[in-house]
Fold:
Amino acid sequence: MTKQQSILLDILLTDFAKPEYRGNGAMVNIEKVVKGNEKLKILSESELNKLLYIIRKEQIKIGIQLLSGTSIFVVFDSHIKDFLNIGGFKKLRIKKRNELYFKWIGFIITVLTFIILIYATFFQEYSQKEVTEQISKPHTEKIESQIKPTEKVNLTNVPDSLKLIPNKNLTGDFNGDNKTDFASIVKNKTTKKQVF
Structure:
């Protein structure tokens, strides 16, 4: 039911309840009602039938008998007046619209909550993997950058009893004094043992 239809339905019910359109036994001819109102005159027959269908359908839903019949209607005047006094079809349309909004809002909140939970779970797992990779990666890079084999070594400080083993030399700051240190595996010439 649209806003325009709810307005026309309230006009139609108001005109059904007018005494000048009533005949014997609260019977009302639909043609008299339509001819007596300028807003209802411009409606086509299919639009008018649609309005009558909405009245029949809604009176079943709300449990209030407003009218019955096809072209000549039995009008329940007190029911129509009570229904119009509580807001009529305009209020009924607003109530249905609000219920629909609440249903959609509930659905959207449920879907968004589900998406956030999935995203948070995935992001947490991904960030934990990334953190562990970053923690271990810089550490190995530091070690790799500090320990490099050397080719040329100043042998003036090496005693004659020791022999340097080639390609087993390391340079780096081993004692934390911000100076490059030298380490190598050496072989004792007398005992033939390798020492670091």
